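Model it.
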Amino acid sequence: MAKKSGAGGIILVAVVLAILAVYFIWNMQRQQELQSEKYWTEVVAALQDIPARTKITREMVTLTRYPKELVIDGAIRNPKDVDGHTTLVRIKAKEQIRANDLLGAGQAPGLAYDIPPGMRAIAIGAGEVMAAGGSVKPGDRVDILATYSDPVVHQETTQMILQNVLVLAVNEGVTDQQIKQGAKSSMTLAVKPEEAELLTAADRAGALRVALRGLNEKTVIATQGVGTRDFGGPNTLKFSTTPPDVSRSTPIIISPPRNQRPELKIYRGSQETIVPQE
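Modeled.
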């Protein structure tokens, strides 16, 4: 059977058109890719919220495309550069991860990242007696007592000067709450700036001692302090002719005038006790 004239030409034209179509599609995709590379880039972002001081694993991050004008300074481009590193700050899900969000290889986070907002870290000496038998560890809460010589009443006085204080570290900057050994040489406390002044002055004026609080103990109580005359002996009470300052804790006896009914008024701080006399 004779072939139809021009059939071969039609097939050739169809093949050429198909090749041209493929070329145009490839060229269009290529132009789009070039445009994408020009205006977009890939950066490492968090797949989940990552707390501060957390070691990053590959499952926590992903590569995400961002417009180049929205990429933050220092953004990391390779997931290998974050794998195994520890975060310095909290990173929210979908946030880009920057180099200064992470600790360098072999580095450990400093104590500054544990200090609550508005607080200061201050260290005091610690010994087995002073630090509740060496049982005080990072994360515990303690009360601070100061014993000093009161220049007004001329006696040694003990006062609870701070309560419910957070322990940040013990000994040589140990912050791990899981350690077995407690404070032996020093402890670092989180205090307000004005409390740091008080603690420093009390440390120079006398001796400090730490009382360890229970795990769920949050109570803060008002105390007036205790002097050496408050726990027995012939000088337990101090005689006077005028009522005492209510801020003082030393018991004071007010002797009655001779023309009144014999009684004694005993003041201790703001409390008054009347003791009839025969």
